[in-house]
Amino acid sequence: MPLRIDVITIFPDYFAPLQLSLMGKAQQSGLVTIAIHDLREFTSDRHRSVDDTPYGGGAGMVMTPEPWGQAIDAVVTDQSTLIVPTPAGKLFSQPVAAELAHSTHLIFACGRYEGIDQRVVEYYRPRIDVRELSIGDYVLAGGDVATLAMIEASVRLVPGVLGNPESLVEESHQLPGVEYPSYTKPPTWRGLDVPEVLLSGHHDQIARWRAEQSTIRTTHNRPDLLPGS
Ligand SMILES: Nc1ncccc1[N+](=O)[O-]
């Protein structure tokens, strides 16, 4: 059963990159199907408007609920998971990507402006799995880039998408902490040598060195990921 993904957005062109590389191959292989829907196709006024001023005042505009209701109703099933990218959401992570990779149907609602009228979440929450998710503590202009990131992180975990599932095992965020540094040919580059141990062929010494490097890097870059932190 392929993973089905429906993306609803006012900028369908943002999702052209999903036709490239690994994401494109995943679709050609039939493991994943991705459809992009223009929210404005679900408006009914002449100006195809999708936003209005916020109740309670404040700057910016809020996306009106009805076009979203029409667009989501057009694709939703009782197997759907509705994902609303928002800085106010729970933090997206590798474990969440693994969960999404094993879903049946994902609907991404890419909001712009100050976000989507909250009643859209309130309306679907009793009916299907609804997740407000954030990819990080910074503010983007809308949910489209966040959706691209979440689709890429999730689809690469769909069984069969990655040619070599082995590369998933060692990946950062699968093991505690971040990944050790990587090197390839040439053995010397601009006077810089590859660490000797990596050329030694001693696999247990290499494993030890990589574990040490991972701890050093995690301590320096991401102490929050250290075990027991
Ligand atoms: N960080 C974000 N900023 C705007 C919209 C969505 C976002 N997110 O992380 O899902």
How would you describe this protein?
With 229 residues, this protein is α/β, with parallel strands linked by helices. The chain folds into 2 domains: 3-163, SPOUT methyltransferase, trefoil knot domain (Alpha/beta knot, 3-Layer(aba) Sandwich), CATH 3.40.1280; 166-225, Trp Operon Repressor, Chain A, CATH 1.10.1270. The chain contains 7 helices and 9 strands. It has a 5-stranded parallel beta sheet with strand order 2-1-6-5-7, sandwiched between helices. It has a two-stranded antiparallel sheet with strand order 3-4. Strand 1, helix 1 (21-28) and strand 2 form a beta-alpha-beta unit. The protein starts with a strand and ends in an 8-residue tail after the last helix. 3-nitropyridin-2-amine binds at residues 85-87, 134-136, 138-140, 142-143, 146. Residues 3-226 form the tRNA methyltransferase TRMD/TRM10-type domain. This is tRNA (guanine-N(1)-)-methyltransferase.
Count the strands? 9
Q: Provide the CATH superfamily of the largest domain.
A: SPOUT methyltransferase, trefoil knot domain
The profile of the biggest β sheet is:
5 strands, parallel
What's the helix-strand series? EHEEEHEHEHEHHEEH
- The backbone outline, from C-alpha atoms, is elongated
CATH topology of the largest domain: Alpha/beta knot
Termini separation (Å)? Answer: 39 Å
Q: What strand line-up does the widest sheet have?
A: 2-1-6-5-7
Mean pLDDT: 95
- Looking at the overall shape, the CATH architecture of the largest domain is 3-Layer(aba) Sandwich
Structural class: alpha/beta
Given as residue ranges, the uncertain stretches (5+ residues, pLDDT < 50) are none
Overall number of structural domains: 2
CATH class of the largest domain: Alpha Beta
Global Rg: 22 Å
Could you say which small molecules are bound to this protein?
A: 3-nitropyridin-2-amine
Tally of DSSP helical segments: 7
Give the DSSP E fraction (strand runs of 2 or more residues).
15-25%
Share of residues in helices? 25-40%
Keywords: Cytoplasm, Methyltransferase, S-adenosyl-L-methionine, Transferase, tRNA processing
Protein name: tRNA (guanine-N(1)-)-methyltransferase
Enzyme class: transferase
Main location: cytoplasm
